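haha ok so turns out i had the wrong file open the whole time. this is the CORRECT one, sorry everyone. sequence first:
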Amino acid sequence: MTSGRSRAKLSMTVGFPPGANEDTPVFVISVAAELSGLHAQTLRSYDRLGLVSPGRTAAGGRRYSARDIALLREVQRLSQEEGVNLAGIKRIIELENEVDALREKVQELMTEVAAAHAAAEQAAAQVHASYRRDLVPVRQETALVVWKPDRRR
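then structure:
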């Protein structure tokens, strides 16, 4: 959903704890609100609407990842700068997630096709290697036969 540039900017802004990455839910709602520039109640509303789905602690508290923060910023940008309503933003997010999933599937299929092609090439090479290399004499004659049916019958 977010561009590589905004992810890189967020990575520079937000330091990850050891062993964590941009998908690790680490930020409590107050920190996520501050990092995204939104009010905590807005984050709760976005969660209820399904725009952003933060991780949950065992006690049910929300924990936002760096990717969630970037997504919150994108929701805010689409809403404020582009004038897209929340239903439209939700659909955009769904479609972009679907496109990402399809790109991953295409990449997997391309890898499978390449592996199958390599296996076919290898099998063909083995078949060609198994050919006998003996020379077999072939007669180089040509003949022309003209057939004339017997019309007397």
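Helices lie at 4-13, 29-36, 40-49, 66-80, 86-130.
again sry for the mixup
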